[in-house]
Amino acid sequence: MTVAPPQVTSEIAEKGVLARAAARRLAFASALQRDAALEAIAAALVARQTEIAEANALDMAVARDMGLGEAMLGRLILTPKSVAALAEDVRHVAALPDPIGQTEDMRTLPNGLQVGRKRVPLGVIGVIYESRPNVTVDIAALCIKSGNAALLRGGKEAQHSNRVLAQVVGDACVAAGLPAGSVQLIRSADRALVREMLEARDVIDLLIPRGGADLHRFAVEHAKVPVVTGGIGVVHIYVDAAANLDQAVPICVNAKVQKPSACNAADTFLVHRAVADRFLPRLADAMQAEDVELRVDQAALKTLGERPNVRRATQDDFGFEFLSLRASVRVVDDLDEALDHIAAHGGHSEAILSEDYSAVMRFLNEVDAAAVFANASTRFNDGGQFGLGAEVAISTTKLHARGPMGLKELTSYKWVVLGQGHIRP
Q1: CATH number, residue 243
Q2: Structural domain span for residue 161
Q3: Does 183 share its domain with 277?
Q4: For residues 52 and 156, what is the distance between their CA atoms, to the nearest angstrom?
Q5: pTM for the full model?
Q6: Tens-digit pLDDT profile for residues 60-89
Q7: Number of folded domains in the chain?
Q8: Distance separating alpha carbons of residues 73 and 63, to the nearest angstrom
Q9: Segment 27-72, tens digit of pLDDT
Q10: Are 267 and 349 a contacting pair, CB within 8 Å?
Q11: pLDDT of res. 6
Q12: What is the Cα–Cα distance from 370 to 57, expressed in whole angstroms?
């Protein structure tokens, strides 16, 4: 008798069944129950800080042995301060208005039918991400609040941190009465599972890749589920002829230095020729104090001369996302040239520094990006800073979400029609 080989069930398929079942229950869990789970998560993060720190130390040691750069190490590390901030972010999410069940645009038609839309969860949110273990908690909090189940696949460089954080989240969910499959982490580091997630139409309703350009390209090429990409892109700050230079210097420094590994950190400074001689030396001095290397075009080099932190730029330095203490500088003749440069290389976070109202309005109207700023650091392009509590990603696509993706971006709607015996003639 021939014996059939044992059926092999992948981790995606196994956990997908649990996620799909959990999503059905989460969609009908009360707001009080979901908020109680979030409060439990926040408390557990603080209570289990030592466990989290020990796991993160293992990841940091492995990452250094692997030779990962400072940008990646900066994304990976968890400190007591950052864990406390994570807990606070979860509480902020809990305090946000519940998006589920909200009725929008309800109206009565001439025939007496009442028609409107009701907010509903998407279902199962799959996220593929690298390095940042805080993403595990951010996504879990937003998914729980919005009634979605989460299926997470972090990078191998953060596997110890992610496993502990996922366990903290899972334990808190169960303690609050939510289903055990509400938030699950794919533990295997097998890269084949990435493609399996991209093709898991029976499991995942929306997939969000958070990582480098290679991951995004792979997701776009192979996805059979809806995908929202984002989190990569070159960030520009244009210093106009009418800029307040006393404000411009600290804004530029903050945008570059406050967290250089972040996707909304400034990469390129475009400086109007009329203020270049006055602004560039001040910018170079301030950046040198922060160990920032400036790669400048010929016009800027002529103004700055030889400085320890200044070198001649190559063409590759423009349109490049540095994610480190480096930035490029280009002198432009006018706003038109700045807009043309941003149109060719930008699309993530773009800022103008100017006191000329017309220039500001034109910049805000004409720049096509996920977020545009006037006289403010691009580092504010963040779900928490925008009052969303947290974010699952910063989308640079235009459908169905753009910019920081918070609670509303993790919901859809269904049409609700109320009649009184209506039939269509």
Answers
A1: 3.40.309.10
A2: 11-228+405-418
A3: no
A4: 16
A5: 0.83
A6: 999 999 888 877 788 899 999 999 999 998
A7: 2
A8: 7
A9: 999 999 999 999 999 999 999 999 999 999 999 999 999 888 877 7
A10: no
A11: 40
A12: 35
Q: Is the peptide bond before 341 cis (omega within 30 degrees of 0)?
A: no
Range list of H helices, 346-409:
357-366
Place of tokens 């530029």: 252
Helix (H) or strand (E) holding 254: helix 245-257
The model's confidence at residue 130, banded by pLDDT at 50, 70 and 90, is confident
Q: Does an H or E element contain 296, and which?
A: strand 293-296
Which residue in the block uniquely carries the two structure tokens 């420094």? 253
Q: Read off the tokens for 315.
A: 């063409």
Q: How far apart are CA 55 and CA 214, in angstroms?
A: 28
**What is the C-alpha separation between 329 and 311, in angstroms, rounded?**
10
Strand partners, 126: 151, 207
Q: Please state, in angstroms and rounded to a whole number, the distance separating the CA atoms of residues 276 and 282.
A: 10
How do residues 151-179 score in pLDDT, each as one tens digit?
A: 999 988 899 999 999 999 999 999 999 99
Whether residue 145 sits in one domain with residue 71: yes
Rg value, the chain, Cα? 24
Give, rounded to a whole angstrom, the gap between the first and last alpha carbons of the chain: 65
Backbone angles phi, psi at 254, to 5 degrees: -60, -45
Q: Which two structure tokens, joined as six digits, stand for 167?
A: 């366990």
- The number of residues in the chain equals 425
DSSP 8-state code for residue 147: T
